[in-house]
User: Fold this.
Amino acid sequence: MKICYFDHAATTPVSTEVLQEMLPYFELQYGNASSMYSLGRQAKRAIEHARKRVADAIGAKAKEIYFTSCGSESDNLAIKGIAYANKQKGNHIITSKIEHPAVLNTCRHLEKEGFQVTYLNVDKNGVIDLEQLSNSISPSTILISIMFANNEIGTIQPIEMISKIAHQNHILFHTDAVQAIGNLRIDVKQLEIDALSMSGHKFYAPKGVGALYIKEGVDFTKIQDGGHQENDKRAGTENVAEIVGLGKAIEEIYKRFEEYNSHLKKLRDYYINEIERNIANTKLNGDREKRLPGNANFSFPNCNAQKLLLDLDAKGICASAGSACSTGNPEPSHVLTAIGLSNDMATGTLRITFGKDNTKDDVDYLITCLRKMI
Ligand SMILES: *Cc1c(COP(=O)(O)O)cnc(C)c1O
Assistant:
């Protein structure tokens, strides 16, 4: 049976050109980047080439990019790193109620260590409350961390406004851009972002590699001790092959950005129109305009999305009922709760996220299956 994969917000396949570029670094170019001989120096060069590619993709300098093991680690390093380095200035952090667990649980961890955290509300479309943001700022606020775009409902936040508010008040601004990289054009200098997290496996690089941009001059403490890798900010022998893969993937995706972006939007808008035309009483979650190009999140009343997922799976279709992290968890997702969805509607919520290999025929097949099942 053909697999129709509609869960690109959970993870993406490694693209062929990315895999090809990575392969030599497993078997032939296996040097440790800290070694002095040429095999080691070649590994070091490959890492620095990848760093430049990441920096170029987001308008940063190469020395502002730190490689990590995943998006979650990037979030931890950014938030804890900045909080620890700035705790003489204050102990207050502002984030939102709809962040990924990598941010939410990092903030909860810091609360146990004496930091104070404000979790901002969002409106019914999932946009954070800017007035509450301004009102929450106090002299002890050191960091604002708001995601660029939400992984469940696809809503894009007013990043430029948030960044402005942060800097008018001399507060650092971090954004979890794990869902945004590859799907939106991002220039960290233009947006005045101080720290930004990304993860390779969300844009056709492998799982297990991420990157963190931290603006030059922003103080942050390392949270993993050991050797002096990554400019002494992240200990551990570099994952050379995967770093090479992440560098190739981010360059590729932005080289073909317009084409990729319009492909995703076309499939998304077609799916949204067809669902609304053919199935009664549906609710599109997230902002209709300011949403990720490949995200369509619908609630179907009186429907059990967990059951729907199993039925779809039997037809070769991969989708998601909330975020992948909460699969098997009967609690409604914190994001759907935050936008005011009832438990019933949350239970019937299906997230479809499109990717580069999806076709219109695949979407027609998905819609046919959904019409029968719902
Ligand atoms: C996937 C995801 C993460 C976590 O990235 P990992 O590489 O899987 O640890 C963090 N934030 C958002 C918004 C995500 O979608």
User: Anything to note?
Assistant: The chain has two domains: 4-12+257-373, 16-255. DSSP finds 14 helices and twelve strands in the chain.
